[in-house]
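Exercise 7. Given the encoded structure of a 367-residue chain, write a plausible sequence.
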């Protein structure tokens, strides 16, 4: 099977050269070529790439920021930077880029990168051997094999999401109705519940061993025995986290990336806000403990990486943003400080109708 790839470079001749190298491997299919990074971001769901080859020096949005936004859409996306500059290598690997290739591209070096990508794709395929996948951060997306579940009834979709949140526990039907459909009278709400239950069971009838919706003592319970979910990864990472055991750190960092869009944030479920807040707070606690542990041990790169993850979850935290930008300036990385400030300014304005403080703004322009 060909590996789906996109290429982003504002210089058309570099774009064509990189695309030519990729096509000649006979392992990749270039599904999108972009000189404008905003267009690459806009079409990401349509192109659905497995790999993104990105130049760093781009108009409108630098390659590092583009990669971060693409990863928010698909945390499994493999990132490769192809650039004329080597000073961004640390930032590139902060976001888990698989490789960093300098122009002009050398065939032997490019082939080594190709083999690295093939190995990574193979590992992902092995991890995702199960046919059932659930994504809950941002919007709810469920697939059986390669086919997305077509809910048809929005109430069935909402009920599935609600029971997934309490996966493995029985929830009384009156509690379900109270949380999901309080605007309906009892008789109408009960009818909606029963219809939604039937719809869910029909939708997953082909994988009954993986998904079971059980009923007992006026209560419903969703059991998922086989399946991959970003929600399961986040909750497991948090429950397994141990500050004294650095082997648990990687899973928490990945959980922070997965959570970036918020728990069912695009679905508009009022009952989901409590779970969103709980997960966010738990992740921040764990990430702050990791940051302090790395800082105590003198692991500066790891400290910065985790601190970046924290600011993504809590952009309103002035002290943490100041700390990150201060580290950038002290280590001579003024470009990273400026880029972070631009992101922070935009985020605070769009989400909180606020602006960064003067002391943070001053850090963005220091030499």
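Solution.
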């Amino acid at each position: 099977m060909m590996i789906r790839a996109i290429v982003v470079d504002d210089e058309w001749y570099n774009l064509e050269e990189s695309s030519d190298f990729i096509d000649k491997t006979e392992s990749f299919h270039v599904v999108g070529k972009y000189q404008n990074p905003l267009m690459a971001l806009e079409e990401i769901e349509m192109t659905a790439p497995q790999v993104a080859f990105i130049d760093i020096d781009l108009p409108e949005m630098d390659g590092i920021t583009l990669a971060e936004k693409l990863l928010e859409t698909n945390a499994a996306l493999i990132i490769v930077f192809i650039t004329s500059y080597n000073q961004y290598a640390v930032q590139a690997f902060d976001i888990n880029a698989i490789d960093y290739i300098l122009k002009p591209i050398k065939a032997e070096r490019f082939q080594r990168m190709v083999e690295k990508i093939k190995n990574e794709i193979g590992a992902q395929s092995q991890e995702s051997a199960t046919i059932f996948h659930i994504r809950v951060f941002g919007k709810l997306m469920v697939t059986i094999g390669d086919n997305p579940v077509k809910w048809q009834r929005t109430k069935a979709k909402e009920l599935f999401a609600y029971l997934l949140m309490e996966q493995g526990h029985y929830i009384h039907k009156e509690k379900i109705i109270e949380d999901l459909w309080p605007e309906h009278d009892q008789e109408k709400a009960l009818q909606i519940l029963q219809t939604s239950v039937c719809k869910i069971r029909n939708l997953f009838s082909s994988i009954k061993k993986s998904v079971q919706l059980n009923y007992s003592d006026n209560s419903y319970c969703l059991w998922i025995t086989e399946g991959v979910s970003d929600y399961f990864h986040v909750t497991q990472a948090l429950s397994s986290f141990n500050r004294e055991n650095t082997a648990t750190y990687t899973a928490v960092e990945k959980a922070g990336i997965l959570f970036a869009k918020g728990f069912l944030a695009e679905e508009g479920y009022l009952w989901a806000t409590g779970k969103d807040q709980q997960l966010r707070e738990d992740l921040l606690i764990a990430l702050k403990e990791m940051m302090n542990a790395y800082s105590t041990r003198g692991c500066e790169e790891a400290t910065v990486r985790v601190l970046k993850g924290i600011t993504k979850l809590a952009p309103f935290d002035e002290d943490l943003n100041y700390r990150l930008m201060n580290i950038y300036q002290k280590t001579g990385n003024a470009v990273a400080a400026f880029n972070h400030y631009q992101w922070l300014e935009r985020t605070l304005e769009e989400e909180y109708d606020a602006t960064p403080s003067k002391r943070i703004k001053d850090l963005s322009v220091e030499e």
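Remark. The longest strand covers residues 28-34. Students should compare their own answers with the one above.
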